[in-house]
Amino acid sequence: MADNVVVARNTENAPKCPMCSQTVAFSHYNNLSAQLPVDPKTGAIVEGGVKEQAEQCFRNIAAIVASIDHDLNDVVRVTIFVKDIMDIDVVERAYKSFFTTYVSARTIVAVNDLPMGALVQVEALLTNGEGTIPNEPQAGDLVKYANNTHNAPFDAMSTQSVAFSHYNNITAQLPIDPVSNQIVMGGVQEQTAQCLKNIKAVLTAMDVPFDDIVKVTVFLKDLGDVEAMNEIYKRFFPDSGIARAVNYLPARTVVEVADLPQHALVQIEAVCSHGDGTPPQAVEARHGLIIEANNIADAPKDELSSQTVAFSHYNNISAQLGVDPATGALVAGGVKAETEQALKNIKAIIESVDHVLEDCVKVNIFVKDMNDMDAVNEVYAQFFPEGTPARRVVGVANLPMGAAIQIDAIFGNFEGTPPIA
């Protein structure tokens, strides 16, 4: 089978940015850049409040999706960032006007800042049924699986899990007891346990093992709770005897947010492998694909995550700070030096698995001061001079180790991962 290719595309009907592509397809997924409420004709934030801004974000997504011959029913995950968690009801009304029948997996968080002073920013992950292998079909028209179980919290505005090809995308789970539909009693530890129980229930309903999770994102209201959260996290990962034998841990990002739905203390998002794929798999009829986790000495190590986890045609990179792996400390010099080191760490990790920066399809940037983005972009352009990867930028009040910036990324995995022997 030929190698997949990274396909970056832009349309005049949505805002353009020199630092990223509107959509980057690789294999069976299209990764969209987070959309601000910018009118593509004027390049400015639309007039009005959060309602008008939310509608413009969704219009931009719809325009990008239409430009690559897809539609909104092909969306598998929507991520919504707001400045004020109390605006969610208004944003949801806009959301429902675009997703009138089908609703995808979803994540909602409030953050401290957004580019251009926006009130809302929306990101989407989209299927790519035909794949991106040049001049030949990669598979037939794959089926998108949407699944819900009564053993996890139900939300009419999202689907608990949406599987397509070899990945399951799990709606970010709040610490809600599915029986009472209320936040569980207790603090961050009890809430962390409930989030992870909910994820496990969603996966169990599809006969997917917990250790098939390849990437976890933990949103905390207070980064000071990270040690308490980690104490519970360690009880869930690794989950099985096989995973414990090899100490398999998913890639991970931990970030502080301004607020969460229902004012929860923690919310956890998971991306999981789907080994048998969704049918038909006429060409890519490989069952039991393996998960490949890798760590190297040339990038910072974390006892609770793998630096990169590859499954099928994607490599998922854990969030990187501007930490010098030789010293274990943040580099001196401020945000520019930290940005350079974080990207060097990502470069070292992906090159350790025989890939290059040009294979990057998505970059997520968390920055403490949005005013630093000019400096960040100056460094970023040295690593991604073509501005190819799709991108998300959000402002946060706090990052691990007091860092100024944190970056995670998703890369293509041209050869895919082989089936279990």
TrEMBL record:
One of its GO terms (cellular component) is cytosol. Signal peptide: none annotated. Pfam families: Ribonuc_L-PSP (PF01042). This is Reactive intermediate/imine deaminase. One of its GO terms (molecular function) is deaminase activity. InterPro entries: RutC-like_sf, YjgF/YER057c/UK114.
